[in-house]
Every structure is written in structure tokens, then in C-alpha cells.
Design a protein that fits this description.
Length: 518
Amino acid sequence: MKIRFDNRFPAGLPGDPERTNRLRQVEGAVWSAVEPSPVPAPRVLAVSTDLLKTLGLTEADAASPAFAQVFGGNALLEGMQPHASNYGGHQFGNWAGQLGDGRAITLGEAVAPDGRHWELQLKGAGPTPYSRRADGRAVLRSSIREFLCSEAMHHLGIPTTRALSLVATGDDVVRDMFYDGHPEAEPGAIVCRVAPSFLRFGHFELPASRGDIELLRTLVDFAIRRDYPQLQGSGEALYAAWFREIAERTARLMAEWMRVGFVHGVMNTDNMSALGLTIDYGPYGWIDNYDPDFTPNTTDAQGRRYRFGWQPRIGLWNLQQLAAALSPLFSDITPLQAGLEAYGQEFARTDRRNIARKLGLSDGDDDALTLTRDLQAWMHKAEVDMTIFFRTLGEGDADALTPDAFADAFYDEAKREIHRDELVAWLARYASRVADDAFDAAGRRETMRLANPKYILRNWLTQEVIDRAHAGDASGITELLNVMQRPYDDQPGREYFAGKRPDWARNKAGCSMLSCSS
Ligand code: AMP
Ligand code: MG
């Protein structure tokens, strides 16, 4: 197994002089050198063959004993320079001070055969100076969730950090899943996450909060040079262009999450990527029955700050915190305000385009918007599966659609009857809009097929795979990954994976209820 490394992050940014794992406040530095802690019996449970290829690795590499050792945290490859990075963040709306990589260790920046750079980062590889009161480890159930969802998101075409491997450690980890005084030993695991950059909003907030403007500027200059080489100019104009780009990427990401029904669950500013990637898969969830108030995160059950329907506004709130952190670099904050306005415009633009695509219309005009809002209101009260509804809508000719075609999308037969007439009326409006549209029937269908996934990583599907893995059979992980690699294709024989949430999963831990304990 040969990988070339070019570790620009530790090479280009100030590091922490202390080299121990002692918990501490790290000032004036963006990273601390730290090695993964060894584990007793690393065993590869799954790999992303797609990402292996991107990195220039083979399946034989992944099957080699060295792979399990390296991605289980027991060995380093030549050229790796393991470190944890230092960031802060706003958690649930409050400034939380220094957080940092408490259980993530970047091994190095791999250079792929095509020249692209990818940070390889182990999650769950043991304590760092930022582990606070925790152990630096991760449990198998959460690691399966992060591994699968990273890859599922990528194949949906939505920006995300990736996952190369999932390795069982052979060690137990103790967790109190619902913080209710019932700690249990669970199997531990390590995911190797992969991204061009793991910089978060919180990386910039921390030096700003400490008044360390020099470090802030160094970090911003580095981030622009490494991660946004296409941006031109210098000084405040360059900083403004960069902030605007982050705002627009974040806007597009929010619109994309809304398109497929993804609920992140913990949109703290330390979980917001400076590249506009989906990052930190914790208590996330996927929408089954359309419900803008749904949050999968029990830690957020009170205020539901991170509910599905609020994600676009939370994206803006998080950008406001980033703008505040960057403001010392500006003599006049007008460009930052302009960046925040660009967020709203870019979100509206992408959301309209997605609305049009989901309905198979050539234009996301006000009429299309109204059709969607009315449909959403109806899906909410009639308890209708969003993914199945849209997929079904795109399968027939618009003027031939009847309520019966949508039978599979309902969770409650009584509600299906009560709200049937409204569906009939909506379908008639939709058919007449489609008849007036520029798309022909084939264009409409193909547009809809590519906007409305058939397969999403429903919580219950992952939970079944987790239950099997706990019982000793990890093969379900790769099975599910294979399905999620082609989310827009009809995959004959795999209808099971496109099914709506079964009754058993309605209120089950791990399906509709998750916590940050992972
Ligand atoms: P998260 O909720 O996963 O985004 O984590 C928030 C902060 O807590 C980050 O600084 C994490 O590194 C840290 N953290 C979460 N879980 C652990 C753990 N098991 N050990 C050490 N640090 C952790
Ligand atoms: Mg986090």
C-alpha cells in the first residue's frame, strides 16, 4: 500500500509545542501533534471501493493486514503526520469555547493519482488534547451510521466528507445512550473520513474569540490558498469573495438537504464545513413522513432548533457567527453583509430549481412554488412519505395519476381516506401545470428521476444493519452501501430498500430517536 503525502495543514499553520495528550487550552496554535492509541484487534468491516479507487488504492490493499493496522490506528504509513486540530463553536446557540478534534486524528494529506489532495482522518482513534471529559473513542453503531451516510450522500450528488473504511477495534466502549443513567459496554469502531479539508466555521471563531487576530488572519490566508485557489485578488476584497463563496455553498447545501429529506441533527458551528460539505454525521435522520418539525436528536427535543424545516435559517445563523468572527479582518463590514444576503439569494435560487426538478417542470416559477407548498402542507397532515410520493409522481403520465397510485406512501389509512379529495384536487392542478410546461413527457420523467431518489438511507435500514452487525454479521453494511451507490436508479429485486418505515421503527431508539452519545 503506497500513498504519497503532502501535509499542508501542519506545514502551513502554527502548531502546539506540547506533544502530550494532556487536556488543555491550546492558544496560538491550530493543531497538536498526537498519535492514534493502539487497539487490540483491528478488523476491516467495510470499505468504500469507489473511494479506494479515487485514492489510487486497490481492493487487495484494503484486504491486506497493513490496511487494518493503519486504519485501526495501530500503525502509520511513511509520510503521515498525525495531528488533532483546534477549533471552537456555538453549540445549540451558545458559545462553547474551545472544542477541537476530541476524537478525530488527521493522519495526513494524501495526494491521489490525479493530483487532488485528500485529508485522511480517523474518528474514534483515542484521546487528544481536545477530548475534554470523553474517551476519544466511537461506538460501532455510530460508526456504521457515519460510514454509510457519508457515502450515500456522495452518491446522491450532495457535497460531503467521504468515508474510506470502517474498522472494528476489538475493544469495548462504554456509553449511556440516552444520558439516563444506564451506561453499557458496546463494541468500538473507527471510521476513516476523507475530505479535501476538515476546516469548520469554528476554526475561525476560536482565534477571533480570543482576540488573536494574527492567528485568525494566518488561518484565513491558508484556507483561501489551499482550499479556494480559484479565488483571485487580495486583502479585504479576497476575504469578501471567500466569505461569499462559503455562504453560497452553504446555501446550496441546505437546499440539497431539503430536496432529499436529510436532517443533520446537530448544526452547531463546529459542525459546519468551510467548504460547504456535509460534515459530522451524528444523530442525523432522514424524513419518512413529511414533517418540517422532525428532529432525530433527543438532545434537541426541547427547542427543536435543528428540526428539518429550520435548517436553511440555521445555516444563515451559523454564517452570521462566521461573519462576526471574520469582522476584525475588515475595515468595513458591508462585504460581509453582502455575503449574508448572497446566502438568501443562492438558497432561493437553488430551492426553486430543486422544486422545479422535483415536480418535473422546466421553470421554478411562483406557481411551482405554490404547488409545492400546498403539497407539503398536505403531506404533513396526511402523513405521507415524501420520498415515495415524489418518486411515484414521476413514474406516471401527469394526466393519468390517480390517488390509488400513491397507496404505498401513506402511514395511516384513516388519514389517507380523510385527505383523499385534497389529493385529487392537487393532482388536477399539477396535471394542468404540466400540460402547460415546456418539457415533453420524457423530459419531465427523466428530470424527476434524477431529482427524486428512490433509495435514501432511511434510519430503519441502517438500524437493521447495526443490529445484524452487533449479532456478528457485518455483511449488511456493504449490502446497504451497494444499494445507496445508485440512489436514482430503479434496482430490480431491491424494492425492500425503497420501502417506507415499518411500524416497529416508528418510535425505536436508533430510528426516530438518537442522541449525541456516540
Ligand atoms: P460532536 O457533537 O460529535 O460534534 O462533538 C462535539 C465536540 O465533542 C467535539 O469537540 C468532539 O471532538 C468532542 N467529542 C465528542 N465525542 C467525543 C469522545 N467520545 N471523545 C472525545 N471527544 C469527543
Ligand atoms: Mg462535531
